[in-house]
Amino acid sequence: MKMSKLFVQTMRDNPSDAEVISHKLLVRAGYIKKLTSGVYTFMPLMWRVLKKVENIIREEMDAAGAQELLMPFVQPKELWEESGRWNAYGGELMRLKDRHGREMCLGPTHEEIITSVVRDIIKSYKQLPINLYQIQSKFRDERRPRFGLLRGREFIMKDAYSFSTSQEGLDKEYQNMWQAYTKIFNRCGLPTKVVQSDSGAIGGNVSHEFMVITDTDAGENDVFYCDSCDYSANSNHAVSILPEAIVDGGYDKAEIIDTPDVHSIDELSAFLKCAPSVICKALVYIVDKAPVIALIRGDKQVEETKLLNAVGGVDIRIATSAEIAELMKQNGYDAIPGFIGPKGADGKYLTKYDEYKVKIVADKTVADLKNFVIGINQTDKHLVGANWGVDVDLPSVVEDLRLVEAGELCPQCHKPLKVTRGIEVGNIFQLGTKYSKPMNGVYLDAEGKAQPYIMGCYGIGVTRTAAAAVEAHHDDWGIKWPLAIAPYHAIVVPVSTKDETQMSVANKIYEDLQNAGIEAVIDDRDERPGVKFKDADLIGFPYRITVGKTVAEGNVEFVERATGEKSVLKPQEAVQKVIDAVNELKK
Ligand code: ATP
Ligand code: MG
User: Which of 51, 197, 260, 261 pairs as cysteine with 209 (C-beta 3.0–4.6 A)?
Assistant: First the structure.
C-alpha cells in the first residue's frame, strides 16, 4: 500500500470528547470516525486490525471444536418473552417496530436466538455436546457510551454458546473455552488476568472475566487479587475477611439521644465518640421502582450489584433526597438523610412507598453488632445501645452486600488483598438451564426422557479487545501495535522522494517485503521526514525501515516501534528481520 493512497487522515489534536488514550489515539491516527454517540465507522486501518483479531478468535475457536454460524441482528419480541428478558433486560435493549407494528429488538446478545435454533434440530443426547459461535455487530443502548471502542453502543462481539447433557459436560466445555481464551488473548499480545465475576442479567452461577489490567480510567472494573494465592475477583463478586473491629458500642442501656446537625457517619462517630463500626448505617436505594433499605456497618460501603442480587431486580440506584423525603412522608416521618433507620422512634417499620413495599435487607457485618447506634427516622436524634431482637429486628435477608476494600484479607489464604483496574475483554458463563427451561430447549436422554440442555455462553469484545491493546501498548507518540494485530507489519520511509537512489532502494525493499508475504506500506508522500516519522509512530507500524542519506554506504535504518530500538542494517538484513518476526507469529 502506498501511503499516498491509503484512506487515512491523521490529526494533530485529540478529539474533545475523548477521555482515555485508546479513544484519543484511534481517532487521531485515523482508525475510527464517530457517526453518533457510541457508533463508529471502522476506517480501513481499523478494519484490518479487527479482521486480525477476528481471525485469531476464529482459529482458536475452531481448534477448540466450536462451529461458526451467523444469526440475525434483528430479533422478534416473542423469543424474548419466552425467556422472560423482554421486560427484564432494561434500557440497554433497543426496541423497535416493523411496518406491521410487530415489536423487535436489535440483538444485544443471542441466547434466545441460539436456543430457538438448536431446540428445533438437537433432539437427542447423541447430538450433544455442541458449541456454536458467531462474530457479529451487537447493539446496546448503553447508559453511558464512552471511551471510544471500549464502551460503544454498536460494537463487534464474538459470542459462543455450548449445549451439554450434564454439569460435568458443561464444566469440561467451560475449561475448554477458558484455555481457548487464554490462547486468543496471548496471541493478540494482551496478557489477561482471569477473575471471578457476578453473572448479572445474563443469569447462571459460575462466571469468569478476562481482564486486561490497567492503572488508568479506561479500566471500568475494580479487580481484587491476592499476591500470595490465585484469588482474584471483580468487585461485584469479591469477598474478604475483615480485620478485627469494635462491634460492641458499650452502652449500658438503649436510649434516644440528641445528635444535632450530624449528617455523615464520620460526624456522628466524632459527636458520639464511638467507632464508626458500631453504627448501623441505613442506605436507601431504588431497585427498579421499589425502595430498598440496606443496613451495613458504618465503616463499610454497599456493593450495588450484590444488593441487586440480594433483592432481585434489573436496575439499581441510590435514592435521591426528594425520594427519601417522600418515603418519610408516606410513612409518617419527616427525617432528613443522616437520620434514617428501618424503624421509627414510634416503633413502626418503614413499609410503603407508592404502590411498592419497602424491602429491608442487611449486610452480614451488622448481624454481629451489639449496643449499636442506629437512626430512628427523627432528625437530630439517634438510638444508642440498640440490640437486635430487643430494640430492632434483624431483617430476614442477611447477605454479603459489602464492597471489598484493599487491605482486607483474602478469603482463601487470609493475606491482605490488593486492588487494580481492569478492562473486561471477554467472559465465560455457566448458564445451566436458565434459557433452555423457559424456552423448552430439550433433548431426549438415553432413557428417552426429555431433559433441558445444560448451557454455557462465552463472549469476547472484538472492538474492545483492539482498543484494550492500544491502552496496553502506546507511548506519547502513538500506538505500538502488537505485531499479530497491527494493520500492517512494516513501513518503508524514503526520507526524500526526490532522491532517485533513495527511492529505488525503498521501492526494492517494499517489493521484497511484499513478495515475502509481508504487509507493508511505503511512504511515497512528498513530505518532510519529520511528518512521515510522526505519522508512522502515531499509526503504530511495528517496524520502520528508513532509507536516507546513508543509503550511499549501502545502509538503512531499522526501527522497532515497541522498544524504540534502532539499528543500521543492509536493506536485505532489514527485510529479513521483518520476515523472521512475522514467521515467529505463525509458530
Ligand atoms: P460490561 O460489564 O463491560 O458491560 P457485559 O458484562 O455486558 O460487559 P457481555 O454481555 O458478556 O458483557 O458481553 C461480552 C463481551 O462484549 C464483554 O466481555 C466485552 O468485551 C464486550 N462488550 C460488552 N459491552 C460492550 C460495549 N458496550 N462496547 C464494547 N464492547 C462491549
Ligand atoms: Mg454491559
Answer: 197
